[in-house]
Design a protein that fits this description.
Two copies of one chain form a homodimer.
Chain A (H helix, E strand, L loop, with lengths): L2 H9 L11 H8 L3 H13 L3 E3 L6 E3 L1 H13 L1 H17 L2 E8 L2 E8 L14 E2 L5 H8 L3 H7 L15 H14 L2 E4 L6 E9 L5 E10 L5 H23 L1 H5 L7
Antiparallel strand pairs in A: 1-2, 3-4, 3-8, 4-5, 6-7, 7-8
Chain B binds a DNA duplex through helix 3.
DNA sequence: CATTGCGGTTCAGCATATGAACCGATGTTT
DNA sequence: AAACATCGGTTCATATGCTGAACCGCAATG
């Protein structure tokens, strides 16, 4: 791995559970020498991607990350365009709505509109959603290139709850259903007690760049509300896609099942 | 500069004005060779700090940054980040310092550093501060959008003591003064015998997310100490804003030779 | 159809990253 | 209180991985 790769992998050692780490620990976890690790940390901190707690001398992620992330978020057409529509959808459904972006083989949650209700599903920005275990993932697969879908079945399908679909055929069935309806539906595939519907957001090539999902407590959902949510999500997804790609162009790209 | 430093400086080429850049341009702007620049970009994109627009082949900041920034924000929320600086300010001034966060039309006290002296002002976490009656509120208004300020004058201005400013013009005068000085000053507007100075804490959009105030017994204050406190508060507010948004590599603790 | 600029690749040479051994300080065990 | 274990941090000879001039094919421009 390149030096740069090693430096960045140091950043990835910091997690929610362990947001501050000492030098020796960093060296151990990264497999790098202590001297090397420190050199990299110094380089990172010179650009404020890392900072050091003066007292404990432990390291943590730096403020420069906030700055860079904001730069990205401000420019990214996706979030900028999609957020207002996601908010509308959240108000319309009264449930939590989250946006994900496809990145490196999985869906990354990039924006969340929380439901106004007390009993609601909570989702965190930054969360990674597996393609086969979430409504978002199914919706994504349903509009992806066949070979992309195939590629995803190369790896084993891990189960996150007792309800996660792990057989290829079950997943494909859900994918086909989603493709024909224009939205996907999934309950407790990733987290217990959570029901979701999701719709794809299509880029200018007609393939998904991300998804839009409505997540509700399972207890509030029956078939009728699920369908209402699904149709609303599909519509919202279409609107975002349209704004993303430029109105007139999108009209010529049908949302066709695979 | 280290290889890592060069790689990170590539990230810093991306700005709001120019959020996507082509390879040759990156090489030119960074002063690196094209081959080198590309190697670094590839290394960065392997960890999703950079991504490449497939069509135009131009590069932009990647999704991994959002994830890392989110991690940092989760671990270092406003209060935790600001508290050490508030403590310094409390030690420097010898007076009680309190932090507020804007929430639902008012300022909510989220953290307090009590003065070490026997005769001191006491403030409770959770206390709500009215915008027109406190130094914090005035500092907040002084840096808010004009229409937000206007909106606040819609409601009547209630008096909390005999000294509370209740006329719109008096308040606006204080607001203008605070805007020009960078800090606000107020005596007995909310509680008898209490003098305060306050400075705003600015978010990434340049508008206040909260305030920082120094509260003293009126008897200890003259114009000179008030100004000293005000300037100290202003500086502390700036530091917190900088750490919050990652703006300017200003006063952060350098991580080098000991 | 020559020219320019683009993104991307190659590889010899050498700048730069590496890590074992070290330091002083702090904390823990005996 | 001596012995021991870790801690964060530093040094420097070694060799690894980085550098950049020259190159490719392509697309736009004249």
């Amino acid at each position: 791995m390149s030096t740069v790769g090693k430096a960045i992998s140091l950043l990835e050692l910091f997690t929610l559970k362990e947001p501050e780490i000492g030098l020796s620990d960093i060296a151990r976890k990264s497999g790098l020498d202590k001297a090397t690790a420190r050199r990299l940390l110094v380089a990172l901190s010179e650009h404020r991607l890392i900072e050091q707690e003066p007292l404990s001398r432990r390291y943590r992620l730096g403020a420069g990350l906030s700055r860079l992330a904001r730069m990205r978020d401000a420019h990214l057409p996706f979030v900028r365009l999609a957020a207002p529509i996601a908010r509308e959808l959240a108000q319309e459904t009264g449930e939590t709505v989250h946006l994900s972006e496809f990145s490196a083989g999985a869906l990354l949650t990039v924006h969340v509109e929380l439901s106004a209700r007390a009993n609601r599903v909570s989702v965190d920005v930054g969360q990674i959603l597996p393609l086969h275990g979430t409504a978002s993932g199914i919706a994504f697969l349903a509009f992806s290139r066949p070979q992309s879908v195939e590629a995803h079945f190369g790896k084993p399908l891990t189960a996150f709850t007792a309800h996660t679909m792990t057989s290829r055929e079950t997943v494909m069935q859900a994918v086909r259903l989603a493709a024909s309806r224009g939205y996907s539906r999934s309950a407790q595939g990733y987290e217990e007690g959570v029901h979701s519907v999701a719709a794809p957001i299509l880029g200018s090539d007609g393939f998904p760049v991300g998804t839009l999902a409505v997540a509700s407590p399972l207890s509030r959902i029956d078939d009728e509300t699920a369908e209402r949510q699904g149709l609303a999500a599909r519509e919202a997804g279409r609107r975002i896609s349209a704004e993303l790609t430029g109105e007139q162009w999108h009209a010529s790209v049908p949302l066709q099942p695979r």
